[in-house]
Amino acid sequence: MLGSYPPLRGISSYCFGLAGALAALVRVEFISFKHLYPRSLYPGGDLSDDNSFPDTPIDDLHVRRRLSWYNPFGWIWESLSMDGDLLHAQWWSMPLAPVYACLALGFKIRKKPVLFTIHNVLSHEDSFLFFSVSRLLFKLGDHFIVHSRNNRQQLSALYGISPDRTSLIPHGSLDFQVRCDADSAKIRKRFGFAKADKVILLFGAIRPYKGVDTAMRAFKKVLKKFPQAKLLIAGLLWEDWTPYSHLMDELRITAAVQTHLDYIPAADVHHYFEAADLVLLPYHHFDSQSGVGSSAIAFGKPLIVSDVGGLPELVTDKRWVVPPRDANALSRAVITCFKDANLLAQMSLSADKIAAGLGWPVIAKKTIAVYRRLVRAGKLRRGR
User: What are the b/e assignments for 177-209, b being 16+ CB within 10 Å?
Assistant: First the structure.
């Protein structure tokens, strides 16, 4: 498997969950990075490692951290030294394309299958270069895993990849972040929230497509109905915060908004979800499934999402799916939730039901079924 593994950041939460579950069933050689990509190409600015992931050694999971973005000799050596039955590449970041192409070619030369999990069918920032690079890279793939029905349709329409070469396997629930011994009341108190406060959480990297402005405008309307409402915004800044600060002042909601504008280590994620009554994913546009949504599901938190990408698949009641950029619809959905405590409880139960189907053992079994088909087909092509 090729991707990012803790303590690196990237998509390490996903890789951590999937690789660990797979290793309970097959031997996994995980190819990770020593240096993921240059700081200048990382809009968040901070590339420091996150050493707070759980330390859980697994017998049949061997992690190799040899790759560096600047060392093609290392890519070539890794591509020649890998000896698995197939390569499973986790694709999400354009600067890594040369590394991925090199390792995929190593497997293609030996006539072994290459499987891509497509985390981003398109760039979050609508980059044509990302699309062009992905289209070239995907020519090396024998099969593709996507996380939502929308992604499968996009892969066919945009890249010409037929549905019979794709498998739909959802993003697993990030349940390793949950702390069974966490005391929600104490955590809320540390944040300064009162028991009666209704806390709305926006979590994850602050990027233009995330809809923070829409959430703020909706929150203004929510405050009129529920003066005890609070908006908790937590995540690393990938853009200038000044326009949001000005918007909060303009809306006169600053006193009711609490911000933590930095990367949240894995070990601290549970503080924010335990403090929240409701989680919003008000994205303007989106073409994949959400790690933040997977975290919310793992914590059993009520969710309201935009009608984009795979987000609607995270809720069972379409009342909690709103049009993107529609602050009025978003505020109405939040107010409806807060009017009836029973509704929030029902939404939590729905989240638990969804989480049950997104457990990593379930995901691993579906993934290994794909592996077996590909390995069997590869052997037939080689006449073995």
Answer: bbeeeeeeeebbeebebeeebbbbbbbbbbbeb
Question: For domain 12-172+359-381, which CATH number applies: 3.40.50.300, 3.40.50.2000, 3.30.1490.20, 3.40.50.970?
Answer: 3.40.50.2000
Tell me the mean pLDDT in the region 327-332: 98
Looking at domain 175-356, which of 3.50.50.60, 1.10.10.10, 3.40.50.2000, 3.40.640.10 is its CATH number? Answer: 3.40.50.2000
- 203: part of which helix (H) or strand (E)? strand 198-203
pLDDT tens, residue by residue, 13-22: 999 999 999 9
Cβ contact 100:128 at 8 Å: no
Cis? peptide before 54, omega within 30° of 0: no
Mean pLDDT for the chain? 92
Peptide bond preceding 282 in cis form (omega within 30 of 0): no
SS3 167: strand
- What three-state secondary structure class fits 299? coil
Strand partners, 281: 305
Which of the residue ranges 150-159, 247-256, 375-384 has the most confident prediction, judged by mean pLDDT? 247-256
pTM: 0.89
